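Work Package 3 (structural annotation) set out to generate three-dimensional models for the target panel prioritized at the project kickoff. During this period the team completed the workflow that converts sequence records into discrete structure tokens, so that structures can be stored uniformly alongside our sequence database. As a representative example, we reproduce one entry of 457 residues exactly as it appears in the project archive.
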Amino acid sequence: MFESLGSRFSGAFGALRNRGKISASDIENTCIEIRQALLEADVALSVVDSFVQSISEKSIHALSSIQSGSNQAQAIFEIVNTELTEILGGGARRVRFAKNPPTVIMLAGLQGAGKTTLAGKLAKFYKDQGNTPLLVACDLQRPNAVNQLQVVGESVGVSVFAPEPGNGTGNPVKVAEAGIAHAKSKLFNMVIVDTAGRLGVDEQLMNEAISIRKAINPDEVIFVIDAMMGQDAVRTAEAFQNGVGFDGVALTKLDGDARGGAALSIAKITGRPIMFASTGEKVSDFDIFYPERMASRILGLGDVATLAEQAKKAFDADTSAKLEAKFVSGEDFTLEDFLEQLEAMSKMGSMSKLLGMLPGAASMKKQIENIDESEIIRTKSIVQSMTPQERRDPKVLNGSRRARIAIGAGRKVQDVNALVDKFTAAQKMMKQMRNGGGSPLSAAMGLPPAPKKVAPP
């Protein structure tokens, strides 16, 4: 979402770095460029003016204290990074759990913001952490909203409390109260209440949300907003804040092509932190919002912390330990091992998203956009078409076997040959890496081996 903004920031700082010794005039020109970039990204004018004024004053003040031999551009870059992190909320804000369960979370927002889908993602997120969430269907206005929540709940393995069919019938306040009572009786430790939205802010929407909040006294009210709304997102957030009120924000559709001004405006204007971010259609495309990581991505530094977390989730500890034991013992890396690595990579999400988290991703935008996401699927299909013996010992792959595998995978024999050749090369590299601790997948992808470990004295 922030590719265009990130490119503008990179251009501004690139010009600043090329200046050598920086003057107040250089800082002024950089601030003008930043201001224009933020306005074009749909960031609220008041936020832009405050941000630019702050970095201008701090940068000019820093010039007098920075030694001439040091990197002045880097010092100014760090000032911008700090200020950008502050605009986005300063630090990650997590849900406040109730002292006496269940912890009640109420979702509010306009229709179409993605509340119901986000409710399922939120439930799955906390279920994976050992909690026992219950989804409560209080959107009784939108057609099939109750049914949608039931489908979402089933897909993530979370129970749904839905005593009313919805579609314009039923009392959402009574459903919310009954849902809390049900959670207490069945020992759920978290309740997520999905409420109705409208196509626009209106009195009926606010009154219903206010009534539900008064009835259940939630521990957290989270305002769900579509990150692609631009300036309208800020106006809507202010209306909800003045109406029902909320404790934090959840941004949806952060993977969209819009300019992303909402993310840079809401926290500053409302004084409420962005707590969660939804970055795709998959249930796993959801996480706590980290302001410092988002600032890092906007400034072209990537998001290595999130990338590392995703890798840790995807790569099974037992599998990694088994592979390490193989390397130490001198056993060959097999196609079965390779398939396990490919499966883990698939769990991490799309390759374009993963590469987008790397430092300097903005400068590789076209290359990332041209990545063939289905390549891993095609490679997996070839390996999966092999027999267990063929995966363990590729040397038995004669012409007839390769032809059979190609037919089974729906590929050409040349594709099978290419994979086997690459894998054979990777096997050879693995033998050279046994003392280096490198990754088998990185070897298969042609990455250089890690340096050898030095034994302690």
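The chain has three domains: 3-87, 103-301, 312-444.
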